[in-house]
Design goal:
The chain is α/β, with parallel strands linked by helices. It has 11 helices and 21 strands. Bound molecules: thymidine-5'-diphosphate (TYD) and magnesium ion.
Length: 460
C-alpha cells in the first residue's frame, strides 16, 4: 500500500515544523523562511532510523552494559597531522564520529577536507571523498594545487544516498567526506535536495552508516543567507561535532571554530591562511595578526582574547571624529556593534568624555571576529586615544572587562594572557587590579593594575 502523503512547512533556517505557512519563524525569528515540503503521513518528517528504537547505535542487540566494562582508548583518535584542526576536534578524529563543517560558500571547506584526506591517506588510511558539487576533473585540479596524493584516496561523484550507502558498505573506508549535505537526496523523500526533510533524512542515513561501521564522516554544510536551502543549523543537534569555518573571503585568514563537540571542549579555534597551494596552518596567530601594525598612530591598542585555551593578541583600531551634521555614525567590524555603543555610553557618563557628537569607527584587524568581554578595556582605550589624539605605547597590552559603572573587572586566564604578551616582546600590561595579585613579580613584563576606566586612562 502506498503511503499517504501530507504537506507540512519547514523553516529552512532552523528546521521548525508547522502545519501552515508562517511569515516569521517562532523558532529562530527568521522572516520568510518557510517552505512547503511533502512528507509521508504518520511518521515524523525525518525519522533518524537506527538511532533510537530497539537497536542501539552499533546496530547490535541492545543490552544494558556496566559503565566500567566499556573500553575507551584515547589512542583510538586519528591525528590529521594538522595541529590547528586536531585541537579544534579535541585531539584528533574519533572513529565513528560525525563532524559537520559549516561555512559560507567559497570559504574553503572543500579545500580543508581534501587536505585532511591527503594527510590521512599519507598515514595509510582508506578515505572516500564524495562530491555532489564538483566533477572528478574539478576535484583533481584542486588536488593538484594541494600536493601529491597516493592510491588510498577514492573519489565518487554522486548525490543518491542509496548508491552512496552501498558504495561505502562495499569499499569500507575509514573516513568519508560528504560535500555537501545540501546536494544529497533520498528517493523516499519527495521534497527537493537541500530542503529540511531531505537534509535531515540524509544525515540520519549517514549517521547509521557512521555508527554501524565505525566510519568517521565529515559533512560539509553551506550556510545560506537567503534560506533557499536548509542551513547546517537544521542538523547541528544530530551530529557529534560542529565546526564553523569563518573569515572574510577577501582576506587570507580563516578561522575554524568548534561550536559543539561531544569529544572535546568547544570554542577552540584553529587559524589557517588561504594560499595558492591550499590552506596553511598559522601556528602563531598573534604574531601574524600583529604584523604590519602601525606605530605612532593614535586609536590603536593591542588586546588579548582567549579563544578556547589559546590566547590571541590582536589589534583594535578606533577612529573618533566630529560629526559633520545630524546623527553621529558608528560602525564596528569584528566586534559587536551594541557592545561598542554601550562602552561609548560608559565613557560619556563615567569618564566625562563627550562622544555624543562624534562619529566612531571601531575595527578588529585581520578579519577576525571576537566576542570576549576581556577586550572591552582595549576598545575603551582605543576610543579615548583617538578622541584625545594621544598615542598609546606600542609595547602595551590591554585587557579587562568594563562594567556599566566604569569599573574594570577581572577576567579568567589572566596569567596565560600575560605570558603570551611577554613571549611576543610586550613591555607592559594594563589589566584588572584583581588579576594582578598572584602573578605580580613572576614575569619581567610590567603589570599595571587598574580598577576603573579613569585610572586606565591615566596610563595613555
Ligand atoms: P573551496 O574549498 O572551494 O570553498 P567551499 O568548498 O567552502 O565552497 O575554496 C574556494 C576558494 O579557495 C576559491 O575561491 C579559491 C580558493 N583557493 C585558493 O586560494 N588556493 C587554493 O589552493 C585552493 C585549492 C583554493
Ligand atoms: Mg566546496
Amino acid at each position: 500500500m502506498a503511503k499517504a502523503k501530507k504537506s507540512v512547512f519547514f523553516c529552512q533556517n532552523c528546521g521548525y515544523e508547522s502545519s501552515k505557512w508562517l511569515g516569521q519563524c517562532p523558532g529562530c525569528r527568521e522572516w520568510n523562511s518557510f517552505v512547503e515540503e511533502t512528507v509521508s503521513a504518520g511518521g515524523k518528517a525525518a525519522p533518524a532510523k537506527g538511532i533510537s528504537g530497539s537497536e542501539g547505535r552499533t546496530g547490535k542487540k541492545n543490552e544494558p552494559v556496566r559503565l566500567a566494562e566499556i573500553q575507551v582508548r584515547e589512542a583510538d583518535r586519528v591525528s590529521t597531522n594538522m595541529e590547528e584542526l586536531d585541537r579544534v576536534l579535541g585531539g584528533g578524529i574519533v572513529p565513528g564520529s560525525m563532524v559537520l563543517v559549516g561555512g559560507d560558500p567559497g570559504i574553503g571547506k572543500s579545500t580543508l577536507l581534501l587536505q585532511v584526506c591527503r594527510q590521512l591517506t599519507i598515514q595509510g588510511h582508506k578515505v572516500l571523498y564524495i562530491s555532489g558539487e564538483e566533477s572528478l576533473r574539478q576535484i583533481k585540479l584542486r588536488a593538484k594545487r594541494i600536493g601529491e596524493f597516493n592510491e588510498h584516496l577514492y573519489l565518487l561523484c554522486e548525490t543518491n544516498l542509496e548508491i552512496i550507502r552501498s558504495t561505502i558498505e562495499r569499499l569500507k573506508p575509514e573516513m568519508v567526506v560528504i560535500d555537501s549535505i545540501q546536494t544529497m537526496y533520498n528517493e523516499e523523500v519527495s521534497s527537493a535536495p537541500g530542503s529540511v526533510s531531505q537534509v535531515r533524512e540524509s544525515t540520519g542515513i549517514l549517521m547509521q552508516i557512521a555508527k554501524g561501521l565505525g566510519i568517521s564522516v565529515f559533512i560539509v554544510g553551506h550556510v545560506t543567507k537567503d534560506g533557499s536551502v536548509a542551513g547546517p543549523r537544521v542538523l547541528e543537534h544530530m551530529v557529534d561535532t560542529v565546526l564553523y569555518f569563518e573569515g572574510d573571503r577577501q582576506l587570507a585568514y580563516r578561522i575554524l571554530r568548534g561550536v559543539k563537540n561531544r569529544f572535546g571542549s568547544t570554542n577552540e579555534i584553529g587559524v589557517f591562511e588561504m594560499r595558492e597551494k591550499g590552506l596553511e596552518e598559522v601556528k602563531n596567530p598573534s604574531q601574524a595578526l600583529l604584523n604590519g601594525r602601525p606605530t605612532d598612530a593614535s586609536g590603536t591598542t593591542v588586546v588579548c582574547s582567549v579563544e578556547g585555551t589559546r590566547p590571541i593578541l590582536i589589534e583594535i583600531q578606533a577612529l573618533v571624529t566630529r560629526t559633520n551634521f545630524g546623527l553621529p555614525r558608528r560602525t564596528s567590524v569584528g566586534i559587536d556593534y551594541n557592545r561598542v555603543n554601550l562602552l561609548m555610553a560608559v565613557l560619556e557618563k563615567r569618564a566625562g568624555i563627550r562622544l555624543g557628537d562624534c562619529d566612531a569607527y571601531v575595527n578588529l584587524a585581520g578579519g577576525m571576529k571576537l566576542g570576549e568581554p576581556a577586550i572591552d578595556l582595549g576598545i575603551v582605550l582605543s576610543l579615548v586615544s583617538s578622541y584625545k589624539n594621544q598615542v598609546i605605547d606600542e609595547g602595551t597590552l590591554i585587557f579587562g572587562e568594563v562594567g556599566l559603572s566604569g569599573e574594570v573587572r577581572g577576567v579568567s586566564m589572566a596569567e596565560t594572557r600575560v605570558r603570551e604578551a611577554e613571549k611576543l616582546g610586550f613591555t607592559s600590561c594594563i589589566m584588572p587590579k584583581t588579576n594582578v595579585e598572584g602573578i605580580q613579580g613572576k614575569y619581567k613584563i610590567k603589570l599595571i593594575g587598574v580598577s576603573n576606566i579613569k585610572e586606565a586612562m591615566e596610563h595613555i
